[in-house]
Specification:
Radius of gyration: 24 Å
Oligomer: single chain
Shape: globular
Distance between the termini: 73 Å
Strand order of the largest sheet: 1-2
């Protein structure tokens, strides 16, 4: 009985609730009073969906993988699907609740309610889809809904440019996905569940398996704004804050989910996982480089998201799927809070502009900062391993080493700004807390997320040295200094130019000035 109730709650909550919210937004789009009422009701309905999924998970714990539906049109209920449904519906409810106040009185409030709930509903359908065809259909529907969400303010040239950039990249990825699905359906003689796709690709010729893996990689890269599809995410800065929060908190995470679901295909092709890792690492380095020179708060957040997406792609390339899901979840919660609090960040950044210029770093401070940054993070992670003793995979251990490197970079940057007993104590306490929390949660996710069987070799953990060294180099080399040499100034200027997004639309021509009048 508990299973039946749980299945009904899952279907109604995860799939039905967002579309019900979209219908409410469509009905109340014409009247200002009804728009506000519809926005409130839609946020409540999304919250109901979150509660329904949580109730379904509690009512039937430990039941493994279950399927709900008839024939090929079915949903899969596994740990990954439940975690993603909780994340999508929970964040959507919070962001829509914020948008009720943010967009109150705005004529486009109804449009946001409809498109935001469509994105939420199709995303929920995608992460819980059981078959290849249903997953692809939901994936394309998310793309279309997301483009409509970007067009919340269609009269803005920046918004139109963002829609155009995203549409081109989404179209490339979705067309490649459609071609790959056609190949799979023909090879299998019909639709096939995602967990059995490896059997289909195992019988393919080598060249066809390689082509299929290449086609499936494109949509994952495009949706997560990875190189070479990285140009669309910075162009969405003109979107209102709730749109940015919903985008960065959940939608761009879909690339990692895509790679995990289709991991048996990538595992059949030698070098495919290495290619995923290298593209993710390239995006991490590129986005981190740009983020250092961005002056605006939202711009920094955008490139931070891009770097985090690359970080998750690196984890997927290593086969550390539990680490990828953990980062996906943590990033969604953290980045949504940052975007919803972007107004406070802008005010704080404005106050900091009036602060006196930072004094040059003395050599003793530089040596002490680097020494603390190099020693403290790995020591904290090692201590956490000894005390907590989590059951994590060898690949996750290698990934912990990269986390130690990134923690060292962050700590060094903090200490170089102001080195004192207080900042050292705060930095040390933060690193220790993060090390223990990261190790504990990674152990939990490693026990929950079952890694797909990969027949081919995953990327070598030694490749983590490449982005690690690059992050250290850009932290030291790119930051502007008064005594910077000509090469450093050139690199800084080129990076700043690359960080600037130019709208390609022609400006509206100005009206001619009539003699004796003023415009």
């Amino acid at each position: 009985m508990g299973l039946i109730v749980g299945e009904i709650a899952l279907v109604l909550g995860a799939i039905g609730a967002p579309f019900l919210g979209a219908a409410m937004g469509f009905v109340g789009r014409r009247s200002r009073v009804w728009r506000d009422y519809a926005a409130r009701s839609a946020s409540v309905v999304a919250g109901f969906g979150f509660v329904a999924v949580a109730a379904a998970a509690i009512s039937a714990p430990g039941t493994g993988v279950r399927r709900i539906g008839i024939g090929p049109v079915a949903l899969v209920v596994d740990v990954l699907a439940v975690l993603m449904l909780l994340l999508i519906l929970g964040l959507s409810a919070v962001i829509q609740s914020f948008a009720v106040r943010y967009l109150r009185g705005d004529s486009r409030q109804g449009w946001f309610v409809v498109t935001a709930n469509l994105v939420t509903g199709f995303s929920a359908l995608m992460v819980s889809a059981d078959s290849v065809a249903l997953f692809a259909a939901a994936w394309v529907a998310v793309s279309v809904s997301l483009l409509a969400l970007f067009a919340t303010y269609p009269n803005s040239p920046q918004a139109r440019d963002g829609v155009r950039r995203a549409a081109v990249r989404f179209a490339i990825g979705d067309l490649a996905l459609s071609a790959a699905v056609i190949v799979i359906l023909i090879s299998a003689g019909g639709d096939v569940p995602l967990d059995r796709i490896g059997r289909v690709t195992a019988g393919m010729p080598e060249w066809l398996a390689l082509l299929l893996a290449a086609l499936l990689l494109l949509p994952a890269l495009a949706r997560s704004s990875q190189i070479p599809f990285h140009g669309w995410l910075p162009a969405t800065l003109a979107a209102p804050t709730p749109v940015s929060a919903l985008l960065h908190a959940g939608v761009v995470n879909a690339g990692a989910i895509f790679v995990i679901r289709f991991a048996p295909v990538f595992g059949e092709v030698t070098g495919a996982m290495t290619a995923i890792f290298l593209l993710g690492a390239s995006t991490v380095v590129y986005a981190s480089l740009i983020r250092l020179v961005k002056a605006d708060v939202k711009g920094k957040l955008v490139f931070s998201t891009m770097a985090q997406m690359g970080f998750m792609m690196m984890a997927c390339g290593l086969g550390a799927f539990a680490a990828a899901v953990f980062h996906l979840t943590a990033h969604g919660l953290f980045k949504s809070a940052l975007f919803l609090g972007a107004g406070s960040g802008v005010r704080r950044h404005a106050r900091q502009r009036g602060w006196p210029a930072r004094a040059p770093v003395r050599s003793r401070v530089l040596v002490a900062s680097i020494a603390c940054a190099v020693l403290l993070p790995p020591a904290s992670l090692l201590l956490a391993q000894l005390i907590l003793a989590p059951q994590i995979s060898v690949v996750s251990v290698a990934f912990l080493a990269f986390v130690a490197v990134t923690g060292a970079v962050s700590l060094a940057a903090m200490l170089l700004v102001r080195f004192s007993v207080v900042t050292l104590a705060i930095g040390a306490a933060s690193i220790v807390a993060l090390a223990f929390g990261y190790t504990a949660f990674l152990g939990v996710f490693d026990s929950l997320i079952a890694a797909p069987v990969l027949l081919g070799a995953v990327a070598s953990p030694w490749l983590l040295l490449i982005p690690a060294v690059a992050l250290f180099a850009i932290e030291i080399f790119v930051r502007p200094r008064s005594s910077a040499g000509p090469l450093r100034r050139i690199v800084y200027a080129r990076t700043l130019a690359a960080a600037t997004t130019h709208t390609r639309e022609r400006p509206t021509p100005s009206l001619p000035t009539v003699k004796g009048t003023h415009r």
